[in-house]
Design a protein that fits this description.
- The C terminus is likely disordered.
- The protein has a 4-stranded antiparallel sheet.
- It is an alpha+beta fold.
- The chain is built from 10 helices and 4 strands.
- The chain has one domain: 2-Layer Sandwich (Alpha-Beta Plaits).
- The protein is about 50% helix and about 10% strand.
């Protein structure tokens, strides 16, 4: 992974995205999505006590205990604020916690997932584009609109057909944002704290859903010309 010419700054939030090399699919089934999420959440931790391969072999209750310990300790390279996985790309909102944290996080989890995907599919070569994109989020307003854009991706890209399917899309942080139980995989407070309730955030997201879908269609048609 090439070194970035502009360093990423601690405590700043970035819209981070990457896609399959040549826009190839990076997920072939639901098990690939789930494996990606396991690897992603594991490698946000700065100094996990076990190798990933050892962690994945633990009984479910022991893994759950470790995950709870990770979340309570919060010794993170990055905080994951929001995410969405699509068939050939992914989006994150990340806050860098440690020096070079975003770069280390991306290197570790992309290498690990690439190894899994290549071994399973008997392929060789890079799975992701060499350099991920990282765009600084400069204002609260930009942060809110980016979170909405990311959470609407499955709908605006026609991956899901309706709002009810979007709200339960398993490979996005949106269900966590709207869950009645306070799940702790993502650091949601910086966004949800600007709304009176999760329902108000849901309305904020869905109010622009058809506009974003139409905009994506126009962009797609323009690119085809």
């Amino acid at each position: 992974m090439p070194i970035r010419s502009t360093p990423l700054v601690n405590n700043e939030i970035y819209h981070v995205l990457n896609r399959g090399n040549g826009a190839i699919p990076i997920f072939k089934n639901k098990w690939d999505f789930k494996k990606f999420l396991e690897i992603m959440f594991y490698y946000q931790n700065s100094n996990p006590p076990l190798r990933l391969s050892q962690f994945l072999l633990l009984p479910a209750n022991e893994r759950s205990n470790f995950e709870t310990e990770f979340r309570q300790k919060k010794d993170f390279l990055v905080e994951i604020i929001a995410y969405c996985l699509m068939p050939n790309h992914f989006h994150f909102l990340l806050r860098q916690i440690k020096n070079n944290g975003i770069f280390q996080f991306m290197r570790l989890f992309q290498n690990s997932y690439s190894h899994h995907f290549n071994k399973k599919n008997k392929r060789k070569g890079g799975l992701f584009e060499d350099r991920f994109k990282a765009i600084l989020v400069e204002t609260d307003n930009q942060l809110l609109h980016l979170s909405r854009y990311i959470h609407l991706n499955p709908y605006s890209s026609h991956l899901v057909k309706d709002f009810s399917s979007l709200l339960v899309y398993q490979y996005s942080s949106l269900p966590e944002y709207l869950a009645p139980v306070n799940l702790q995989y993502c650091q949601k407070e910086i966004i949800l704290g600007q709304f009176s309730s999760p329902c108000a955030y849901k309305k904020f997201v869905l109010d622009q859903a058809d506009y974003q879908k139409n905009l994506e269609q126009v962009k797609h048609q323009t690119l085809e010309r």
